[in-house]
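User: quick one, fold this
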Amino acid sequence: IKSCWTVTAPVFFFLAYFALQVIYARRKYKISPPETTGHPEFERIFRAQANCSEYFPIFISLLWVAGIFFHQGVATVCGLLYLYTRFKYFQGYAVAAQGRLGPLYASARLLWLLLGLAVAGLLAHFLLP
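Assistant:
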């Protein structure tokens, strides 16, 4: 279980980093809350942060279920790769909307893989003697 924590702990730093980027963009383009529209670069940064925040609960849940019921080492590697792809997604989206696509597809594949591992682990745990 310790290895799952090595992936879970950095999630909070990622979320903080993404939120700070939105704050910096708000200041740079003089967009006060609760406004969410304005300069296109601000909108991309805001959207990237929101998208990442929306997917992290799903990711954490799948990471832990896969880690507990399948194999924590495999889940940890998938989790670290997922964090890397989400960081690249954020960076790519901040520059151009098309820059998000490669990392988006990679992170989606990793979520599907974690889902498959979680399901396989749960089935093995509850159905096999």
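User: anything notable?
Assistant: The radius of gyration is 17 Å.
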